[in-house]
Design goal:
Two copies of one chain form a homodimer.
Chain A lengths: L6 H16 L6 H8 L4 H13 L3 E3 L7 E3 L6 E11 L4 E3 L5 E6 L9 E6 L13 E5 L9 E6 L2 E9 L4 E4 L8 E3 L7 E12 L6
Chain B binds a DNA duplex through helix 3.
DNA sequence: AAGTTTACCATGCAAATGTATGGTATTTGG
DNA sequence: CCAAATACCATACATTTGCATGGTAAACTT
């Protein structure tokens, strides 16, 4: 039952997994057909039957979108990493993904969130280490003590957020950097997002 | 547009979220009706329309299962934590969850995987700290250097896995513990799972 | 008392969906 | 060369699904 998939079957399986991950729901036969340019759902149906026969998926008959993916190796899915946090201050966010990271399905992202890879040990006092992936959520209001990603002038920083009476203070984890007080001097100040989580994959190599 | 949901509408929304998380796909009208004991899909339909009107979901008309959940606050969902790793060696896996942890979103675990909370700094050399959540996947074959959860006699341990020629060695992160060599002396030896990732939530409180 | 909201049901219908069957063309292995 | 596997199409059909409409009953405004 460990038969190999053909090229096309592999592509369809990949598409199934991709859809289930990015959209949350598996596609219908019609959607698959449309994606691959097939004029007929039956073509897809036959491919799915072949894939199921080889044990890679399981279909719940009669139900729409009821395709269960049974491949164990596909636990990890690639997600784009759009920037790096390095050496305390400067943060670069590239227009395109600089890299992808294999994220377990457990760490599915909050909507619109993005990933940044941490370089260097500037955040080590927050127990975040080089190579770790931080999940940044742009849709939340920052609360005191949270680690935020913010833009000052042209640079971006990753610091702890504290809202005082009339000002906002950004405190670095690294004691070498003084807190930044936000006032009129920073007209372009903007909170990009809040670091809601840290993830580190252990599956690839030993640390 | 910030109208409150009624009790029933709230229950239906919870069900939608729950299904999307546990099964990966939103239910159909019929499935919702069946779950709540309704004899009619139209009842569900009207509830969904009401929920949509209040802005909590968004429906893609004509498409099956195309219910998008738009509630921002629901980014974090509780997942059970079934045990603790503490003080180097002993690991306790409780039959029921000892706690729940708020995981970002829509989180879908690798199949059959479970979560353990780390207590103490016994794994700090692997950059895993007290309070962190480790994701354990029981369905993978361990490779050298990976951190595994294993059972020896009655105790369970979390250590690095190394397969030598004729034996298996479990190496502790903590230098105070000597490596354990697996042979006939441990008839009940069993790999419970592999630590595939570490997650730490940053949203609640400052570290 | 009259209106509104909420919560349900029944029925009907068009479109979407999964499935079965039969057919053609190409490639592959013996 | 021939059989089998692969990849696709067309057509047909039963369900599933979403949706619209109309109706009943209770609870709550006003």
């Amino acid at each position: 039952m460990k038969t190999e998939l053909t090229e096309i079957q592999k592509k369809i399986l990949d598409y199934l997994i991709d859809q289930k991950i990015s959209k949350g729901i598996p596609p219908t036969l019609a959607e698959i057909a449309s994606h691959f340019g097939y004029k007929n759902r039956a073509t897809v149906q036959q491919h799915l039957q072949a894939i199921e026969k080889k044990g890679y998926i399981k279909k719940n008959p009669k139900l729409s979108r009821a395709i269960e993916i049974t491949v164990e190796e596909k636990f990890f899915i690639p997600r784009p990493v759009i920037g790096e946090v390095a050496a305390g201050n400067p943060l670069t966010i590239y227009p395109d993904a600089i890299d992808t990271v294999e994220l377990p399905t457990i760490a599915r992202m909050p909507k619109d969130s993005f990933l940044l890879r941490v370089k260097g040990d500037s955040l080590k006092d927050a127990y975040i280490f080089s190579g770790d992936i931080v999940i940044v959520n742009p849709n939340l209001e920052p609360k005191n003590g949270q680690i935020v990603v913010a833009i000052l002038d042209d640079a971006a920083v990753v610091k702890r957020f504290y809202k005082k009476k009339n000002e906002i203070e950004l405190v670095s984890e690294n004691p070498d950097y003084k807190p930044i007080v936000i006032d009129k001097k920073y007209p372009s100040f903007k909170i990009v997002g809040i670091v809601v989580g840290v993830y580190r994959s252990m599956s690839k190599k030993a640390v």
